[in-house]
Amino acid sequence: MIKKGFDVILHAPTGGGKTIGGFMPSIDDFINNNYKSQEFHTLYISPLKALTADVQRNLLNPINDLKINIKVETRTSDTSTYNKAKQIKKPPNFLITTPESFALLMARTDVINLFKNLKFVIIDELHTFFDSKRGHLLSLNVARLRSIKPFQAIGLSATLKNTTLAKKYLSNNKNTKLVSTHSKVIPEITILNSGNRIPWSGHSPRYALSEIYSEILKFKSSILFVNTRAQAEILFESLWAINNKNKKIAIHHGSLEKGLRKKVEKEIVEGYVECVVATSSLDLGLDWGNIDLVMQIGAPKGVARLVQRIGRANHTINTPSRAILVPTNCFEYVECIAAKECVELNFLEDEIYSEGSLDVLAQHIVGVAISQKFKKEDLYKQIKDAWPYRNLNIEDFEKTLSFVENGGYSLQAYEEYSRLRTDGEYYEIRDKSLVTKYKMNIGTIVEAEMLRLRVGNRYLGNIEEWFISGLSAGDTFIFGGKRLMFEKVIGNIAYAKITALEHQKIPSFKGGNLPLSTHLSKTVRKIFSKRLEAADLPDSLKKWSELQAKFSSFPKENEFLVETFKRKNGKQEKYYMAVHPFEGRNTHQTLGFLILRRIKKLGVQPFGFVANDYSILFSFSKEIEDIDFLFSQDILIEDLYEWLEETPLIKRLFREIAIISGLIYKNLPGKQKTGKQVTFNTDLIYEVLRKHEPHHILLKITTENAKKDLVDLDRLSTFLFRIKNKIKINKLKRASALAFSLLFEYHKETPDKNELDNFYLEKLENELLEEVNAS
Amino acid sequence: MHHKDVIFADKEFSFFANGELYWPSKKTLIISDLHFEKGSSFTESNQYIPPFDTIETLRQLSNFINNHPVEKIIFLGDLIHDKFAFQRMTAKSKEFFFKVLKNIDCTLTVGNHDNISFLKDIGLTLTDEVVIDGICFSHYPSIDQKFSVFGHYHPKVKLIINARGIWVACFVLNKKRILMPSYGYYTGGLSIKSAQIQELFDAQYEIFPLAKEKIYKLSLKK
Q1: Which of B36, B70, B98, B112 is the S-S candidate for B80 at Cβ 3.0 to 4.6 Å?
Q2: Residue A389 main-chain phi, psi, to 5 deg
Q3: The domain containing residue B201 runs over which residues?
Q4: Same domain (yes/no): A144, A214
Q5: For residue A254, is it within any domain?
Q6: Across chain B, what does the average pLDDT equal?
């Protein structure tokens, strides 16, 4: 099938020889056609830079065994300038690269000549590209390459539910074939059974620490996956505190200095490290055959994600992977039951995809212009061949093009300083200085402002600017498993020293906390409504569920549970409303803000709200009668847009878009060493644009992105539709078991922060239990 | 308009929340570092920042003048961002500029960004410093004068709100000196903790942070 020249999706599990499989037709073609010239024959694009060397190694083994003369090289941002130049002069036959380095190749003026004999493009981990700006950038360049030289495309993926989507993304409606060798072996999943009581709230696995440790001891090598960097730091520290067997435990997360991360990875491969506590930084990655056990600490969040993580253990196709789930609170226990069930039924989420973002398009147009002069109509047609951009309309395209030229302001104030010039037919760059700026700023991943963390004379990693900005000299925190005392910031470096003092703060990792997937949320709802009593639960969970059933009720599948109660907080009496949509943190945050506005409209003074993946808890000054009004669907019209314009989140989003689209350049030639990188406060730009050019293309992109990423508008409106006329109100005397976890969070967020520690959690929990027992 | 009244050199002054220093008894307004056309200066590196900073700064100024009697304005230097800034100003901005300043006596104490040859043609009095009632107004601090009001540094200070630090512009005041915040819409800043600013303010000084249309007061000791 591959030989016939069709594009192909190869769907095979990790360890199933996917990489080699992807290269087979290419190697085959190379041999059969007696390909001799020094030209690019196959491009292999991987989402992870760290993987490229690994792929090269895996590929060279069979090539050397077969004694074929194929030159294989990698090209990433780590490749030296010398080697990059050499690759252009004498191209390797197979080139393993990343989407960014590929985009840079495509921006070369000699691109047509460079790829004139290209036969194959292989895209690894194809599913990671459907819903990301990186995927948009890649699709644009693949479409452009197709228009230069037709080739056979091969997409590889280990977890793929929506194969139609994969086909469309890879080759936009061409006759694409699917080869699936997916394993039928079901992973063995257990939920850790600790004798201790599972907390009602919080995200700490402390209650099960000794059981986690004894599991680690049973296996030669293990990975403990957590959801956030903060959890990684705490778990790592607590494990070492009880590590009397001196098991070699390491920590791995994306913010650690590259050198340190590489060292840990190497030590895992060599078998020196026996256990690693990791965040999503190890979700994808090196093919380690030697991991015996995967533990997921905290909620799984999504089925596909869990499968991917479990797949890290035991890379052989016929024996099941083994995994242990460790919920950190009662809700998470139910989520773990749901996830286990879904994995066993192979009931994975559909991949989501997104429409091509115009900030990425703006970046791409600059790349195209640098490479060759173009006609507007040709470019438009070519862009629409990239599947994420198939719906791009001519107005948006023209606005984006005009933005690329000189900012796209209706006053046209910058006409004479444009990036591009046109003779009415062709567009080309005005001067060559643009090339360096483009090269230095390519990419679609804009990280939060980071500072490098320096301790003594070495760097430990990167830390969020906003976190450091909240510290004063002498504050202590934990990073990379080390207790540190903050000293000062100079330029973009934060200085700290090792301390023996107890840490007060832990840098959190905002991106690390994924919301509960729609899919899992549905299963969780089902379990709550029907089968929780039937499930085989540990005693403490039974108690929790009995309390809920006795004093309130579990939400039925076709109803939306709203619980109201009041509590004395010091002298003040506060009214509370707990709702349980199970729609994930992002949706709940948005809904929370919108409901808060409505509470105000009813003339009731709101105090605030807190949300997690399962529930939202509101607090206000007096009883609310009209609860239906709070959740009516029209909340999504005026309230949503008013809220969006005010939230600071949108400014963060705008900053990302300003950087990707090239409105501002993060890096400029000769300015890299000054420390301060972003030259401009994008909040000011956002404000001024809204005032003077409310229809500017960047504002449009920001709103579009916000609807999807910030508020998950689709999910929110589906939810509101689902609960219409199905609201069930339980008026309670006190907080229910379900509401409790947020009541705790609520107290955590309110002023008395110092009081807060685990002792306080137990105290509050006991207080509530007593209230319940007293009645 | 939100402001704080202070006594400096035995005279009454007011610090306003947008960065204006007002001397009521003289009907005099002092503003510093407007940096007109900073936005458009970025076209040099192919960055097309929205070109509305000059008009925003002017609107703020015009708003102040409409609400307070102003007979004299002292611009404490760096009125324009670079030497071609005036040429880049749109006709609309220029027109607005002259309209706002009509019938007002305007002096510019020249700063390092200003381009004298252009600015003297537009009706401003250009000088290095202005001394009124023993107070010296200039772009740079006048170290040997008893009382000095100056700009140049764009002072900013970090406020910690909900465990997050935010940087805002501020006035810095002690018995001898007033350091003015920058008035331009796009201008950045230098931390008041930096050595350059610290060496100008001895043991006791006050800062007046500007945040969201309000001005606050903090007393600091070294």
Answers
A1: B36
A2: -105, 15
A3: 3-221
A4: no
A5: yes
A6: 90
